[in-house]
Amino acid sequence: MKVSFHVNGEARALDLDPRVTLLDALRDHLELTGSKKGCDHGQCGACTVLVDGRRVNSCLSLAVMHEGSEITTIEGLGTPENLNPLQQEFVSCDGYQCGYCTPGQIMSATGMLAEAAEGAPSHVSDSLTGKAELSDAEIAERMSGNLCRCSAYPFIREAISRVAE
Ligand code: FES
User: Fold this and answer.
1) Does domain 2-76 have CATH number 3.10.20.30?
2) Ligand 1: which atom is nearest the Cα of residue 39?
3) ipTM of the complex
4) Which residues form the 2Fe-2S ferredoxin-type domain (predicted)?
């Protein structure tokens, strides 16, 4: 089955088995291995990418569902020589330890900060409304879909809060 979308601003066309997930299409067919496969069941967030600006667990989503979409992966945010502000703050705050969850954390935070700026409700709780400035507890709740086995959570939240200010 053919599917065409843009990945990190580049037009890509694939001929895929319709059962292939977006995560496997990115990693195995487009060689974009920054998005990680942790649980493959929508529970860890390591595979988070943006689809049309919204956070998606790419392990739960079939690639062929995204015809015409704009997909952004960690490779589309910055380069090792030119990190984007959030990537830079993760470095400054030691917002990672083993690093496996980091691409998903950064992609999720990127989408979350955009949601907050738009005033969109948290995907976790309708009681939260977006603010320009997010409390530590709000960041924790909005990022609760991204697990860090090393428990670098305080450093991750600090990195995010620096960009949110
Ligand atoms: Fe997708 Fe864990 S690999 S949520």
Assistant:
1) yes
2) 2
3) 0.98
4) 1-77
Residue 133 burial (CB < 10 Å; 0-12/13-18/19+)?
Answer: exposed
Q: How do the domains of the chain map onto residue ranges? A: 2-76, 85-164
Contacts of 93 (CB under 8 A, 6+ apart): 155, 156, 158, 159, 162
Fold (CATH) for 85-164: DNA polymerase; domain 1 (1.10.150)
pLDDT per residue as tens digits for the range 35-69: 999 999 999 999 999 999 999 999 999 999 999 99
Can you give the pTM of this predicted structure?
0.91
Q: What is the best residue among 33, 59, 100, 147 to mutate for testing ligand 1's pocket, by most ligand atoms within 8 Å of CB?
A: 59
Ligand 1 atom closest to the Cα of residue 45 is 4
Query: Could you tell me the two tokens for 83?
Result: 């990190």
